[in-house]
Specification:
434 Repressor (Amino-terminal Domain), mainly alpha, 2 domains, Arc Repressor Mutant, subunit A, 9% strand, single chain
Length: 188
């Protein structure tokens, strides 16, 4: 058995026990849903920081979570954030995949940007989290937000030239944007 298959089996067992979906794991571990699905399908792998974040969803360390003989925790011992997500998933049921058109997503972005003041600086992920909170979209890959900022909102937002470099995080750092033109509530 490969390490990835073993990890995928363990993660699947935990997800089934607590009724969680890949989007829930991605949300709680602050990862992308596509990365979680790739691991579950055994077509991808995760960095140690993400493995630890997934473990902490269940109140464990990565070496405990990765041990196939380690006892699964009880609901009562889980972190509060995880309990809330489990309850949420039970209430709303399985997620229904939805693809948002560029226009739909642009409308949601401008709606949230209408609450910002000219000069406000933000990351696409921060904007995405506000969109998720306001519209309950369940976005976990904020690349779509970045694409809309670049393609549809040029002249309303601009890159600041600064990047959010997170120590220990691999990959391209997220770039900060600035609101340069006010988005009126009725322009949405």
């Amino acid at each position: 058995m490969t390490v990835i298959k073993e990890y995928a089996d363990i993660l699947t067992k935990y997800m089934k026990k607590f009724g969680l979906e890949p989007i829930d794991i991605a949300y709680l571990a602050k990862s992308a849903k596509k990365n979680i699905i790739a691991v579950l399908n055994q077509t991808g792998s995760l960095e140690i920081e993400t493995l630890e974040a997934i473990s902490q969803i269940f109140g464990l360390r990565y070496y405990q979570f990765g041990d196939p003989n380690f006892s699964l925790p009880k609901f009562e011992s889980l972190p509060d954030r995880t309990k809330e997500r489990i309850i949420h998933r039970k209430e709303v049921g399985q997620p229904i995949p939805k693809t948002y058109s560029s226009l739909e997503l642009k409308e949601k972005i401008t709606n949230v940007l209408s609450d910002y003041h000219v000069g406000s600086i933000f990351l696409p992920s921060e904007l995405g989290n506000k969109i998720n909170t306001k519209f309950d979209l369940g976005l976990s890959d904020f690349k779509q937000i970045t694409d809309r900022l670049k393609k549809d909102l040029h002249g309303i937002v601009e890159k600041t030239g600064k990047k959010n470099k997170v120590k220990g995080k691999r990959g391209r750092p997220e770039e900060y944007y600035r609101l340069v033109k006010r988005v009126a509530k009725d322009d949405r």
